[in-house]
Amino acid sequence: MPSQTPQTPTAKSITSPMRDEIQAMPKWLRRPLGKASELSEVQKIIKQRQIHTICEEGRCPNRAECYAQKTATFLLMGPTCTRACAFCQVDKGHSPMPLDPEEPQKVATAVNLLGLRYAVLTSVARDDLPDGGAGWFAMTMAHIRLLNPQTQIEVLTPDFWGGATAPTLPEAENRTLEELQRSRIRTVLEAKPACYNHNIETVRRLQGPVRRGAKYDRSLDVLRIVKAFDPSIPTKSGLMLGHGETETEIIAAMADLRDAKCDRLTLGQYMRPSLEHLPVQKYWTPAEFDRLGEIATEMGFQQVRSGPLVRSSYHAGEND
Questions:
Q1: Among residues 34, 41, 103, 272, which is most buried (max CB within 10 A)?
Q2: Any bridge partners for residue 75, and if so which?
Q3: Strand 73-76 relative to strand 52-53: parallel, antiparallel, unpaired?
Q4: Rounded CA gap, 311 and 59, in Å?
Q5: Would you tell me how many other CB atoms lie within 10 Å of the CB of residue 316?
Q6: Which pLDDT score is estimated for 4?
Q7: In the prediction, which pLDDT does 9 show?
Q8: Which residues have CB under 8 Å from 200's CB, separation 6+?
Q9: Is the dihedral of CA 201, 206, 210, 211 positive or negative?
Q10: CB atoms within 10 A of CB 72
Q11: 205 secondary structure, DSSP code
């Protein structure tokens, strides 16, 4: 009998599972692309200045709508994250790129050119930096305000928990990680953001497989620390549904957020970016999102965004 040679996987065989998943995606998750001219205008401003947005790095399904409205969420400190969350599209690595000293000014200029009245600043986790990047948030906010004094600025920060191996500044010696975290959060708060956002992303039971490197209670503590320093600053958090959580677990997570005095909530559908990411366990329906949104409102959240395509900064600047 002729010998058999091992079959080498073809590009078609590798991509077919993802193709099947895309084809099985519910119709309510499919969005129009938007006008190419509107997309290219915003992309041109961003790319010319070599800055990053979570809209592109995270493959946000709403970027066409947001670009049409000339809005964007800026991703600070490069496109490489030191964490390895299993749901996130952003690149991972232990050696992120050096900070661009011109980035705060570039972002401020982009905000000006786009005419934003409400800008959102987020970042990758930079556990390699002495302050986790807290000072970079504050510096960028200062530059934005110099050019755009009327623009409100929301921040969506990491937990600023550098870990035992993170470098520290000389003045940080002999301080606990809890004390360092509080100091970093305070640095951002002193710049007076319009809203402080930190996402718990999923329910308590699923934190391990979904948010490698993060902790549920640590994230709740971020929101508590914000309120302890400045109760006047609204806090916000969000969950991506579809990892296998139950409605009971979602409601429990919302209760934990309210216990941490969280003011605003976003609930959206997780959509698998690639075969290397966690598969979707369930597509929650628009009706289910509506029901969860009603429950959240009854629980006392001041602002609730709940829907399959909702993301952390979706319609962030709108007042309910």
A1: 103
A2: 52, 122
A3: antiparallel
A4: 11
A5: 24
A6: 46
A7: 45
A8: 216, 219, 220, 237, 238, 239, 253, 256, 257
A9: positive
A10: 27
A11: G
Question: Can you give the pTM of this predicted structure?
Answer: 0.84
Helix, strand, coil shares, percent, the chain, to 5: 40, 15, 45
Helices 286-299 and 247-259, interaxial angle, to 10°? 30
Query: Tokens 């940080």 label which residue?
Result: 172
Beta-carbon contacts of 207 under 8 Å, excluding residues fewer than 6 positions away, are 201, 214, 215, 216
Residue keyed to tokens 């709108």: 318
159 token code pair: 């937990």
Per-residue DSSP letter, 201: B
**Residue 93's pLDDT is what?**
56
- Segments in the chain below pLDDT 50: 1-11, 13-14, 86
DSSP-derived secondary structure letter, 212: T
Express each pLDDT in 254-306 by its tens digit. Answer: 999 999 999 999 999 998 776 677 889 999 999 999 999 999 999 999 999 99
> Residue 60 gets which letter from DSSP?
-
Q: What is the rounded end-to-end Cα distance, in angstroms, of the chain?
A: 74
CA nearest 124: which of 96, 154, 161? Answer: 96
CA distance 126 to 246: 32
Taking alpha carbons only, the member of 101, 92, 226 closest to residue 156 is 226
Q: CB–CB of 215/181 below 8 Å?
A: no
Q: Are 78 and 96 in contact (CB under 8 A)?
A: yes
Annotate 102-148 with DSSP letters as a single string.
THHHHHHHHHHHHT-SEEEEEE---TTSTTTTHHHHHHHHHHHHHH-
CA–CA gap between residue 84 and residue 162 (Å, rounded): 14
Handedness of CA 74, 80, 83, 84 (dihedral sign): positive
State the pLDDT at residue 10: 46
* Apex 159 CA angle, 153 and 164, nearest 5: 145
